[in-house]
Amino acid sequence: MTKPAGDLRLNTIWAFAADGAQIVLTIASFFWLSRFLGKGEFGIYSAAIAICGLSALLGYMGAQQILMIDLSSGGSFDALWSRLVSTVALGGFVVTAVLVAIQPLILQELSRLEVAAIALSQVVFFGFSEFAIIAAQAQRRMVCAFASRVSSGSIRLAAVGLFTVFGSPQVSEWVWFALGAWSFAGLVALTWVRLFFGSWPRWRPPDVRTLRRGLPFVIGGGAATILSVVDQPMLLRLSNEGGADATGVYAVGYKLAAFSSLPIMALVRASDYDFYAAGNQSRQHAQRLAIRMTGMAAGYGVLAGAGLVAISGFADDVLGDDYADTTTVLRFLAPLAFIKALQIFPANALTGSGQQGARNRAVIVALAINVALNLVLIPTHTWRGAIVATLVAETLMAVLLWVFLTRSTRALSSS
Questions:
Q1: Residue 268: which residues within 8 A CB-CB, separation 6 or more?
Q2: Which SS3 state, helix, strand or coil, does residue 199 take?
């Protein structure tokens, strides 16, 4: 058994390096791809990615959280890693089959074969790449995360370059370049885990007990994913003013705003194991860690928001006149990094201390508000309505998470 090693400071440095590499490589491929496809085709692709992201959470059945919990309690990395990868593979193929079956209901703009290519690349092979990061977090060896980020980002960038040279600006062609890139990147990520931790996954499908343990994480994670991505497929379906174009403009702006949160997510990845370890001690330990981490991240969130406002005027210069409205989207979504900084650490403190149910309630309430506002606002206000729904729901979730964490800690202290 490989024991977790490394302190928070060193892991944070490697996590920042990993996310720094991801920012550079992802932004390069993102700008290149979105400009080449144009906002209409890119909007369709973004909606498909959003649906796959939601479906992936259902297929994974909370395997990543179970890995963290069991490792923090002394479980065997080799056995847990094999079960994680097997769950991703099995769940990913099931999800792909379901998405292909319901394609006429959710993505009429794409064929069944194209939906299958997107689902396989995003749910199965992209899942392998991302769960190599989870393995690095669990083992507190973020240098492995750095290697995986650099390799997967470089492979994706190369695929975009090949696409712009040999392909035409259509989603129906890009999906095959993406499938080739992510399948290769996924295998490389598994190889990195083998090199760093000496573990190559064996077939170990989840049993019924594991699936039951993962269900609460599916509910919470699925609701959180819907909250993050539901506006894009809803824009594609409900907008009265060019659904695909509106989705493309909003998706680009939202993605750029999300990039500003990547350094915060680096701190999250570096500290995930620490939250489970703190939660095993007491809720008070988990709450104190959440307060300390939030203080570190919130200051950055303010600076990130100011930076987004400052660079927003250059968006159409880089992306082209097709994305002129992205400037406005960026300015309104500038507070997102700060709001995310307020959310993620109390959420992890709740999960780490065995209170996933409270975290789920906060996310589900915020999701309900988000969907309701989108239904009301998108038909007449298109992407502007999606922005309002996002900011209101995300702010509400941050408030609820802190309320639930504080109440639970006080209730335990008084008892």
A1: 344, 345, 348
A2: coil
The separation between the first and the last C-alpha atoms of the chain, rounded to the nearest angstrom, is: 38
- Residue 110 DSSP one-character state: S
Average pLDDT over residues 116-126: 93
Distance CA 92, CA 325 (A): 35
- Pull the structure tokens for residue 244: 């695909």
What's phi and psi for 230, nearest 5 deg?
Answer: -65, -30
Q: Any idea of the CA torsion for 151, 195, 180, 89, to the nearest 10 degrees?
A: -120
pLDDT digits (tens, 9 = 90+) for 363-388: 899 999 999 999 999 999 888 999 99
Domain edges within the chain: 1-229, 230-415
Q: Read out DSSP for 370-388?
A: HHHHHHHHHHHHHHHHHHH
Q: The whole model's pTM is what?
A: 0.73
Give the Cα separation of 379 and 385 in Å (integer). 8
Structure tokens at 132: 């190599």
pLDDT band at 76 (very low <50, low <70, confident <90, very high): confident
